[in-house]
# Entry
Amino acid sequence: MSTVVDLEGVSPITEGRAVGSPPPPDVLLDVRGLKTHFHVMDGTVPAVDGVDFQLKRGETLGLVGESGCGKSVTSLTIMRLIDIPPGEIVAGEIWFDGQEILSLPMAEMRRIRGSDMSMIFQEPMTSLNPVFTVGDQIAEAVKAHRHVSKKEARNRAVEMLTAVGIPSPERRVKQYPHELSGGMRQRIMIAMALSCDPKLIIADEPTTALDVTIQAQILELIKSMQERTGAALLLITHDLAVVAETVQRMAVMYAGKIVETGTAQEVLLNPKHPYTQGLITSIPSNVPRGQRLNVIRGTVPNPFRMPRGCRFEPRCPFAFEPCQEFDPPLLTTDRDRRAACWLLYPPSELPRPGATTPDALAPAAPVARERVNKQ
Ligand SMILES: Nc1ncnc2c1ncn2[C@@H]1O[C@H](COP(=O)(O)OP(=O)(O)OP(=O)(O)O)[C@@H](O)[C@H]1O
Ligand SMILES: [Mg+2]
# Structure
């Protein structure tokens, strides 16, 4: 019986290849230089194009950014649920719980997925199977990864429904997804995702499809379940207010790349990248009364014609000499703070115009220093 919509179809193109060294043991997830592209009729979409971030055991990280910036493709690549073709994992490594998972055989990956790492999707109806009761679906998820009897799996389903705050769980296990409200279905998804005690929970816009009144309850539930189980959480969201309330650290993504990371509090209070600054000042509640809402000018780049240098350069109010030509790497600015912006580099480390690599350093560019100071 297949209870969950089958999202597989990943070819083992990355299996068996040579990889680097593992991260320290306290790092649960280490995404390094990840590139996932899609080959479509009109060309190649570099959906994820050099993504680096880490998540420690038990830590919570919010991944934010505008629609289409590559958040879901990043999470689906971690789960190895990208359709190949049209997708292709072009480069990078993903270390999870001490092993590099892009090089694992699919069978091994299937074992990890749903047990050690599990995902809560935006729309529970697409992930729940309409023809099986919710109890059967949770029990099936448990049986797929644990050597338990049918009765034990059924008991675990009831226990999980109780844990996610579903009243009368004995009765609810016998119901079908369509008999439940949207909020209830999302609770079922959370119960299913947590039924095998995962070390990593990935939640991709878990509340977007729900009524506003239910959203806060579901977020609260995800947070409390994360705290109770000690799992790490990667929360994907558009909503900076959700980030502020739910996660310890955040990563901001723009056009397939991470442009800033740090603790949620520091990034939100003192954003270093002009894109993060734009995101924060475009939140209505952050704008003093009588002042205009700051909308980031321009639009996201056409994926078939990505800017050569910094991808935010065409929209950036602070763009200067190196930005059009060179893509800034993530720079560690403080402990646990990283941002990819030439404004943050000392002038002596800026790439020289016409240089082929950003390592070719230029003499001080005074205009750059001025702009850094203005920020
Ligand atoms: N199967 C696919 N085939 C071709 N292009 C794809 C495919 N899946 C995603 N893309 C493209 O990859 C890019 C990143 O998409 P992704 O779904 O990761 O964005 P997102 O940040 O999750 O956006 P949203 O906030 O709207 O969910 C987009 O340009 C999208 O069109
Ligand atoms: Mg998405």
Remarks:
- The first strand starts at residue 27 and ends at 40.
- Confidence is low (pLDDT under 50) at residues 1-13, 358-375.
- The chain has two domains: 27-254, 274-374.
- The longest helix spans residues 212-229.
